[in-house]
Design goal:
This protein is α+β, with helices and mostly antiparallel strands and 106 residues long. The protein has one domain. It has 2 helices and 8 strands; from the N terminus they run βββαβββαββ. The chain has a 3-stranded antiparallel sheet. The protein has a 3-stranded antiparallel sheet with strand order 5-4-6, with helices on one face. A hairpin with a 2-residue loop joins β1 and β2. It is globular.
Length: 106
């Protein structure tokens, strides 16, 4: 857990980690996120590097939306977990997420 100090207050922001598909999908959809793959990393029609594409953050030239089924097939076969935050240190909705190896300490 990390903390941010501002004047006399301390704000805490915590990252979570999950492999639960319902949790991942709910978190993304609450932020209008869609499952995507980085187009240059696709191989033989299968998703490459996974991303969640959020409105206003899109890199339309490098991301391709895919179905949740395709996303989770790749997620599981690549042995991934999602590290994410619900809120920022200031209490705003966080869009932070990254995919890591399930066996890593990240």
């Amino acid at each position: 857990m990390s903390t941010t100090r501002t004047k006399s207050t301390t704000r805490t922001k915590a990252s979570k980690r999950t492999t639960n598909q319902r949790t991942i999908r709910r978190w993304a959809e609450q932020r209008d996120g869609q499952p995507a793959t980085v187009t240059a990393t696709e191989q033989q029609g299968k998703p490459g590097i996974l991303r969640i594409d959020f409105p206003g953050y899109s890199r339309e030239d490098t991301l391709e939306h895919i179905s949740w089924d395709e996303f989770f097939d790749k997620f599981d076969s690549a042995n991934l977990a999602m590290v994410y935050q619900d809120k920022t240190a200031d209490g705003e909705t966080s869009y932070f997420c990254k995919f890591v190896n399930r066996d890593s300490d990240e």
